[in-house]
Specification:
- There is one protein chain.
- By secondary structure, this protein is an alpha/beta fold.
- It has helices at residues 40-50, 93-108, 152-155, 157-176, 192-195, 209-225, 287-300, 303-312, 320-325, 334-344, 370-382; strands at residues 6-10, 55-62, 70-73, 83-86, 112-119, 140-141, 185-189, 230-234, 253-256, 278-282, 349-352.
- Helix 1 (40-50) links the parallel strand 1 (6-10) and strand 2 (55-62).
- The longest helix is centred in the middle third of the chain and has 20 residues, at 157-176.
- The protein is globular.
- The protein starts with 5 loop residues before the first strand and ends with a helix.
Length: 385
């Protein structure tokens, strides 16, 4: 049975790394660029609403480079499990002020938001460039200079309690002041990468699964205690009931990139009992387009563009379900086809991952090209959510 489907987008941040709120790492003590009146963010949100988009998904703390605490280093070796990050007793006030300002901008644009508290990178090994600041010896306070490496927040029960009580609960309370624009609070983006035995270059030594589960449960409880819907941006549909099946949320969510054909098929939701999961991420770019961008950037020696192509490769996979049911998956049809398929098979909300690769990561340009914007607008006009 056909349902009315809302279209949302993921809004990954280029400038200031994947950070939206909290202390500004690039211009310490100054507001974020998005906070200015008439900012790129204001313009982009208005553009999205004009296309018929209703929901945006944004990262708040991501890998935590601006989330200060104290680091103890057991040895000089650059291995994540030899580092211990102790969270602050109370989160910096700027996190709380900024999240309210961000939600006010979302409300002004007539949108709803899925704020993502943490990315899986929060728990990964420390970034190489940040290691210069720390070594063996006494615990060292961080100063906007320590990305990732915060696995102790999950694995140490005392640190976990400090993090939940001193950071998560105050942040959720600030979000709850604007609850009418919150679709759901996303506790951790794709937590499976933290516990997977095989991740390649994506993640270092695995986090203890029971510890991560305990943290996720505590965060979900804090979200729901504030009267907000909870969610977790799972990597695959099967992660909802498999690895993290014991962590129950208000609004289940999964992502789909056709990564393992035959094993991770995109499920049909029509007739599904209970709450239907929403699709938190899916790609809309073709491999041919990425190939063309890569050839052009390589010929120019454009390292900025080339660095963006590798992570985008994950989003280029064809959808097996469409190879038989649709005529084409060309650039001028790929997003329309996928949106139509999702609506036909019972999805109530689907959030697109951007396709644009930008030459200037210092700008907060909208990361959807004109072709995709047109396809979103055409779908929302023809099949309004």
């Amino acid at each position: 049975m056909e349902v009315a489907m809302e279209v949302g987008v993921n809004y990954p941040w280029m400038r200031n790394d994947p950070i939206t709120i909290g202390p500004n790492i690039h211009e310490k003590g100054k507001p974020h660029p998005w906070q200015a009146a008439g900012s790129d963010l204001d313009r982009n949100l208005a553009t999205l609403r004009g296309l018929g988009v209703t929901v945006v998904r944004m990262w708040l703390m991501a890998h935590g480079v601006n989330y200060d605490g104290t680091v103890s280093c057991v040895t000089a070796f650059r291995e994540a499990h030899r580092w211990r990050f102790e969270p602050p007793q109370r989160v910096h006030q700027k996190f709380l002020d900024d999240v309210e300002e961000l939600l006010l901008k979302v409300e002004k644009a007539g949108l709803r938001i899925v704020p993502v508290l943490l990315d899986y990178g929060f728990f990964d090994g420390p970034e190489a460039w940040s290691l210069q600041y720390f070594g063996p010896g006494a615990a060292t306070p961080t100063n906007l200079n320590y990305g990732r490496g915060r696995r102790a927040v999950a694995e140490d029960p005392n640190y976990r309690a400090t993090f939940v009580n001193g950071t998560v609960k105050p942040l959720v309370a600030a979000i709850a002041k604007h609850r009418k624009v919150v679709h759901a609070v996303d506790v951790v983006n794709e937590p499976y990468w933290c516990v997977s035995p095989l991740t390649g270059e994506l993640f270092g030594p695995a986090v203890k699964q029971d510890a991560l589960v305990a943290l996720m449960k505590d965060c979900v409880a804090a979200v729901e205690a504030a009267g907000l819907p909870s969610t977790i941006g799972h990597r695959y549909y099967r992660d909802i009931t498999n690895v993290f099946g014991s962590v129950k949320v208000t609004r289940p969510q999964f992502h789909y990139y056709a990564s393992v054909p035959g094993r991770d098929a995109l499920p049909v939701l029509s007739g599904l009992s209970g709450p239907r999961p929403f699709l938190g991420e899916f790609g809309c770019i073709t491999g041919g387009e990425l190939d063309a961008v890569q050839r052009d950037a390589a010929a120019r020696g454009d390292k900025v563009v080339l660095e963006q192509i590798k992570p985008m490769r994950r989003t280029q996979n064809l959808w097996p379900v469409l190879q038989q049911s649709r005529k084409t998956q060309a650039p001028d049809a790929i997003l329309t086809e996928r949106l139509d398929w999702l609506a036909d098979f019972g999805y109530e909300l689907a959030l697109v991952w951007p396709n644009a690769i930008l030459p200037d990561p210092g700008r907060e340009d909208l990361k959807f090209d004109a072709l995709r914007r047109g396809q979103i607008a055409e779908f929302t006009r023809r099949r309004p959510g």
